[in-house]
Design a protein that fits this description.
The complex is a heterodimer of chains A (about 110) and B (about 110). Chain A is mainly β. Chain A contains no helices and 11 strands. In chain A, a hairpin with a 5-residue loop joins strand 7 and strand 8. The N and C termini of chain A lie far apart (about 35 Å). Chain B contains no helices and 9 strands. In chain B, the strands form 2 sheets. Chain B has a 5-stranded mixed beta sheet, with no helix packed on it. The chains are: A mainly beta (about 110), B mainly beta (about 110).
């Protein structure tokens, strides 16, 4: 049973560029949440997707956007990259949007913005 | 919004029991308390969740006093592989925790 998979594992971009990160949820899960984790900090919630719609959003600017496909996979897009966007981006899946559902995390995409 | 406070770091010898306490004075009535473990370069992994009293699973126990203003994660007989960061989460007041920032967590170092 495949867990949550994310791609790519590492990415290097320059300021002003755009990036797309991808996530495949755990088999049977229909909800995907994205988190940003800066070095030495805990993960910070970006947004959650369910039924192909953004259901909840954290305190992130509109430069961060996402998408969920009918097969429940998801993308995180970041436009106009800033140096401060350098972080580990984590995808987590769950079954439904019940906020107490156990989250299953992928290993993340390490984004470096130069 | 409920805020959690945990020790920044802890050291323990192999084979000892480790207790990590989390303070959450403003926890809402309908919020659960959830703990995650994170190894370097990996995503967090669910450990245990509870609402009140005591919960035990195959890896840990969670103790929650009657006033629910704190909770203690207990790891029995830790090994080197338990070296990780442990996060305590409570809800955002709506009964969930997914929108809540994890905080800096407790970095547990197990010493041989």
């Amino acid at each position: 049973d495949a867990g949550v998979t994310q791609s790519p594992t590492h990415l290097i971009k320059t300021r002003g560029q755009q990036v797309t990160l991808r996530c495949s949820p755990k088999s049977g899960h229909d909800t995907v949440s994205w988190y940003q984790q800066a070095l030495g900090q805990g993960p910070q919630f970006i947004f959650q997707y369910y039924e192909e719609e953004e259901r909840q959003r954290g305190n992130f600017p509109d430069r961060f956007s996402g998408h969920q496909y009918p097969n429940y996979s998801s993308e995180l897009n970041v436009n106009a990259l800033l140096l401060g966007d350098s972080a580990l981006y984590l995808c987590a899946s769950s079954l439904g949007t019940d906020l107490d559902e156990k989250l299953f995390f992928g290993s993340g995409t390490q984004l470096s913005v130069l | 919004l409920a805020k959690t406070t945990q020790p920044i770091s802890m050291d323990s010898y192999e084979g000892q029991e480790v207790n990590i306490t989390c303070s959450h004075n403003n926890i809402a009535t309908n919020d659960y308390i959830t703990w995650y473990q994170q190894f370097p370069s990996q995503g967090p992994r669910f450990i245990i969740q509870g609402y009140k009293t005591k919960v035990t699973n195959e890896v840990a126990s969670l103790f929650i006093p009657a006033d629910r203003k704190s909770s203690t994660l207990s790891l029995p007989r830790v090994s080197l592989s338990d070296t990780a960061v442990y996060y305590c989460l409570v809800g955002d007041g709506t009964g969930g925790y997914q929108k809540v920032t994890f905080g800096t967590g407790t970095k547990l170092q197990v010493i041989p």
